[in-house]
Amino acid sequence: MINDFFESDARVIVIKPNKSSTWRANLYALIAISIPSLGAGIGFALLGAWPILPFAGLELIALGAALYYVNWNLEYRQVVTVSERNVKIEKGYFIPKRSWLWEREDTAVNVINAKNQWEGPSLWLHNRESRTSLGEFLSKEEAEDLLKRLRAELPVRTYGSERNVTL
User: Fold this and answer.
1) Do the bridges between strand 86-93 and strand 76-82 make them parallel or antiparallel, or are there none, so unpaired?
2) Cβ neighbours, 10 Å, residue 98
């Protein structure tokens, strides 16, 4: 998912994975699954088959942990701020863990063609010293939309297959 807005004299592009469900909805699903599972486990425990109950609990703990892990990964953000003089790239979960600050005139977009028709292009921002990928989790349409938004702000200096990229 891509959002952009203007903040003072800069354009801010926020890139994040699609989130099909909220954490609250995941908790409701976990509760809905827990009731019959624990009910059956308690029923079997009352009939003397008590080893079923811990396994039912472990199954629900594993499901809850998996839901939490997926939800946490969907909180990943990439924020590109393009001002008159600088380009700032921030990546992280909830808060920026990595950031780059480059001069705008030295920054450009690198586009690597998709390997097949179902993938979108790979997008990178680079300057003379380093580069960083953008939107690797986006769908084909979203990657093309991001490329259009980046082209409005920055030049595309390299375009082609991965083996042809030289920086």
Assistant:
1) antiparallel
2) 10
Sign of CA dihedral 122, 127, 131, 136: negative
**Backbone phi, psi, residue 59, to 5°:** -60, -45
Long-range contacts of 74-78 (CB under 8 A, 24+ apart): 74/16, 74/17, 74/18, 74/19, 75/16, 76/16, 76/17, 76/137, 77/14, 77/15, 77/16, 78/14, 78/15, 78/16, 78/134, 78/135
Query: Other C-beta atoms within 10 Å of 111: how many?
Result: 19
Give the single-character DSSP code of 104.
Answer: G
Task: Quick: pLDDT tens for 24-66.
Answer: 999 999 999 999 999 999 999 999 998 999 999 999 999 999 9
**Residues 6 or more apart from 94 whose CB is under 8 A from it?**
75, 77
For 124, the enclosing helix (H) or strand (E) is: strand 122-126
